[in-house]
Each structure stands twice: as structure tokens, then as C-alpha cells.
Amino acid sequence: MFNTFKGPLYKTNKKLYSQNGEDGILYYIFSCIGYTNKKCIEICAGNGRECNTANLIKNHGFNGLLFDGNNSNVQIGLNFFKNDDVKFLCNWITRSNISGLIQKNNYGGDIDLLSLDIDGVDYWILKELIEKDIINPRVIVLEYQDIIGPEKRLTVPYADDFNGWTDFIPGGGPNYCGASLQAFISLLSNYTFIGSHEGGFNAFFIRKDIKSEYLHEETNLLENVFHFPGVQFGMNVRWNRVKDKHWVEV
Q1: By 3-state DSSP, what share of the chain in percent is helix, strand and coil, each rounded to 5?
Q2: At 63, which CATH number?
């Protein structure tokens, strides 16, 4: 394991199974802080072939509880992980069912990793888990709505059937969904934001009781997080498409 890199987190990017370079970043983080029970939860994991936990499960002995709302994705994922210690469930995740699903499958309490990306009410799902102390992840990776920029604390209003792809406009990802980076930083008061992947819309956090001389709070957001061309396009173009919609300040 390597643990000598001290630059911006995104420079440890490497893609094996992840959509972007999250595999390399997560490997680097765990190289610095080690593993405990190697439990991970991913909400939502797509078909599992391209997700944030697959490399850890396939190559590093993790056991996982994975969710997706599309049954076809789940069937592909069950086949993909058939020789691994994985529970892959088809559920549309809501504020009222997520805690029970996790506890029923014995993944409550301490885990090494939570990955969250549902293109919807991500903020409210995470708030439910954190404030009710359902899980206590050492590391969290989540998608934030980069088009909002580095300063505002905004999210969408909660609804069980919220779907960010309903109003999708080509030219970037879904625009009206999720929450800003500052909204998540404020919510995760027991965690330290340590950076993003190369692309600037997936954030990485470590629990504050975990100490590492190589992982530091990322405070230079304009230089190391919001400088990527795709993010600049999002803030200048995509945000204008949805800035007048109903956003909730948190």
C-alpha cells in the first residue's frame, strides 16, 4: 500500500470498476487509514459492474449491501457478484424504508464505507441515516450537485418518488436533484471533507476520529474542486436551467 502522496485527492484517480476514478481514490484512502470489518453499503449501485464498491468487493475482500431501483440492474449485479459476499437488493430507496432495510440485513452500526448516488433526494436519505445513527461509516463517498457552486447550501425538497431524470436536459447530468457540496459538508459535521474525484462532483469524507497524516481537509475549493471544465460549464450553463426551481436552503 502507498501512503506518501500529499497532493489534491483527485490526483489519485484510477478507474477499474467505478464510473470515474473513484477506485483509485478509495484505494488510497484505505491505504492511509486501513480497514476494519470491510463492510460497505452502496445506494444506488446500478448493475454493479460499474460502481464504487465493486473493486473493494472483488479485489480487497469487502462484503457489501447494495441497492438499486431497477430490477434488470439487480439481476445483472447478482450474477456479477455471484461468487462474492454481497447482498444486492431491488428497492426504491425512501426516507421511510432505508433504515429498516439496512438493519434487517445486519449492516447497521460501524462500516468501512458508504457510497451514495441516487440522483434525487440524496441529502434527505443521508440525513435520515446520520441523525438516527443507523450507520457509522468510516468513509463516505457521495455525489453532490456541482452546478450549484462552492458556496450555497441547497437541496431539493423531499418526495418519495423524486427522480432527477424526470426533467433531464441533454448536455451534462441531471440538473434538478441532489444537494450542493456545502449542504453535505454542513450535514456531515462529524466528518472531514478531503476532496473530490477528477471531475468535481463526487465528494470524499472521512470520520473525524480517524487520524491520518496524509489525508487533510480540503479547503481550497475553487482551485482543487470547482476548477474542472465540466464543473465550470455546469455552474455557468446548466445552473441557469434550474436555478429558479424550488430549492431548499439547509
Answers
A1: 30, 20, 50
A2: 3.40.50.150
